[in-house]
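Notes to self after the call with IL:
- keep both proteins in one doc
- input above output, always
- annotate only the second one for now

Protein 1:
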Amino acid sequence: MLYLGTSFADATLYGNIDQTYNSTKTTEAGVVTNQQTNFSAYQMGQSFLGVKGEEDLGSGLKASYLYAFGLSTDTSATPTNRQSYVGLSGGFGALRIGKQYSNAFMNAISSDPAGATGGAGALYLAALTGYNGTEAPLRQDKGVQYDLPNFVPGLTISLTKVVGNANSAVNNADGDTTNLGTDGVKTGDGNGISIAYTSGGLRAGFTSDTVTNKGINFGTQNADNGDGTGTSEANTLVAASSTDKNKLTTLALSYDLGMAKPSYSNVKMSVGSQSIKVDMFAVSVPLGAATVFISSSSGKIDLTGSENDAKAKGMQYGVNYGLSKRTVAYWHAGNHTITDNTTGVSQKTTGFGIGVHHSF
């Protein structure tokens, strides 16, 4: 029990600890540009500690809360805020206010048998960066999520509103007429809708989100130095626009056949005519206490409107072995290649991780 003033409320302590030995290597034009081996906690989700609970308010109304801290179990880094929200639920549906996982991210990872691991090969994660907030759209800051009542069995509809918290005054004290973030534009304000249907082994989901005046982080691209070595243009950012909104859509399909679970996902993020698109096909197969999986991804990066600026391909595979209901030993590996179609220069990243994940 956690005591709150003179009363008390039920609370659940939960979380996970994940430790992985990782090895990664990146080459450009045949030259090794980065090579690392280390311990981290990202192969099956970052380690975290959280507390959550709910209170019955009567008449079918419930209040809920959740706060989760991100932990760095391999260093002494300061804990981070993963989620923190308060909510109400009842016959009207469910409402949550605060920092939360986005419906777009949750939909995309539902078709990823690796569960958005830290290894190379999951290209859709690159398409999900640079949207709104420091972690968005993985998690969205200053968000409101509303789940409609379940009118149809298996059908879930959710609406999202995020607030960018920008100064939208037209006339600023500094007289700056070019800074879009502070001249009449509500930078970072966004809306979204999520629709999902589950029946038996079938799951199908679609999300659509827009946010005002944000750029796109396209991940890593390549450029040729002219000497064959190439240079890395990491985190290429498409400039924000006062007229073009950042748009994100995700489509995810999966069907659990028992002996295997095939899945597919499509993620697209764009600002105006500039976009990144990723398709992923995957399958997981249970073999007793072990589950093996493999996924194949392909993507297009369009910075000029030609739909032919860069292409990407990736693969991820591995095995999870359940030592108990809460403890999993695993080995994950993968690779991805991004090729500049103008210069022909390619950057390839390979990596693997072996570790243990415990949830409680």
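Protein 2 (the one to annotate):
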Amino acid sequence: MENLIIGNTHPELSVILKYLHFDPDGEQAEVAEELYAEAKMIAAPKTLLKTVPVTLTEETVMLGDIEISYPYVRKMLQDNKFVAAYVSTCGTELENWSLAKKGDPLEEFIADAIKLNYLYASQKPFREYVKNEIFDKTGHLAALNPGSLDLWPISEQKQLFRILGGEEYVKEKTGVVLAESFLMNPTKSTSGVLFISDVEYENCELCPRLTCPNRRAKFKGA
């Protein structure tokens, strides 16, 4: 099953100001409010989602017809019959809009935060859709993301894009382009596979970057 989800969930301005550490009554907040109003007019976050079967081999795991050779991925997915592979992005609309803000450090800084918060805002309804409609509300929804851990390195973005139909197809549907470094553009994009776990799990539990602003769980060690 494949879906393209166009997000219409806008982050609250108050959330963006808090992220930026701006005084809501200050001059910087006024600039942020103006840019936020511009962004709301054009924002169209997108998520390409594909449900694929999981097949275990002796040492690897097949996601659809793509083989993943990393033992950690096999271990985490071994109890799942299928997973939901995805690429989510703030959208090329916001990306192109933000590029026009270069040259003004404050506006560039704010525009970057707005893009990130649009990506964040799109994830909650997307994950609720996956949990309720694809996995039938059972278990804990967990994610594996190429590059979040060395156990599944960022070079595996190539494989993930192949699962979703290939780089050209992902670009056609979402505008997301994979660079030679395996980073995505628009930069405020994320990718991975969602699956069901018997226990709550986040990649953050194994990531030693303790000061990461996006941390969702305490570090528990490898």
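Annotation: Strands lie at 2-6, 46-56, 61-63, 66-68, 82-89, 140-144, 177-178, 184-185, 189-197. The chain is about 40% helix and 20% strand.
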